[in-house]
Amino acid sequence: MNSDHRIASGLATLAANVVGTGAPVVFLHANVADNRMWRAQMAGVGENNLAIAYDRRSFGETHAGTEDFSEVADLLAVMGALTDGAPAILVGCSQGGRIAVDAALRYPSRIVGLVLIAPNVTGEPAAVYPPEITGVLDQLKDAEEAGDLDQVNAIKARLWLDGPLAAEGRVAGPARQLLLDMNAIKLRSSPTGSDLDVIGEVPAFHRLGEIEAPTLVIWGDLEFPHIQDRCRQIAAEIPNGTGHVLADTAHLPSLDCPAEVTDQVVRFVNRFSDRQG
Q: On the CB side of 213, how many CA atoms lie within 13 Å of its CA?
């Protein structure tokens, strides 16, 4: 089964894609992408499970009015519409990982496992950049201030797909074009309101020890150094957490090395999906 859905959450209509049947696995995309970043993983997981990926507000084919909102509430709306009440494994990359962590802390009975790929976490330590990276970040800031969205998109592809210390253009072809297409939608989207999940909550970084769900943290060795450090700490502080480093990839390994990421996710799902019954 491969089907598209439109799910209401507040003033938003969330665009979701579903592959397969069985215990649910929900994919949460990064802030430079949309649900298409998970195509390979959806196909692999959907062979034996219900794989769900959706576009968050301001991304992909989702449409949203202006209102303050909760990313976790949007996630629960998707789960409520598509999982028939079953608890889910969450797979989140970058800001998608932040949403997955927040959901696991607030609704532990709804989340049976986490796969976190280079996750953000509220309350995480401030980033420290080596000199080799600050020049590119200055170029990004200049492009943003000039309103040059094509240049912003190109620089973000260099930082997040190639890796900040890797050669520009390291990842080429369809993967790069897909990222540029996905992020172009985000860059040109209208503001939809503030995310209430990051306002007034106890920062999740200080609550990692409360996460009950078994957790796999994945990161690439071409990732920003501070994100690699953060991933190691997250994997160490979650009671049932483990870490896995992928070689020769950066922030978006689902695009850069899709077969390896699919293998890691499928192995995790096969190990813990029996808890969803």
A: 31
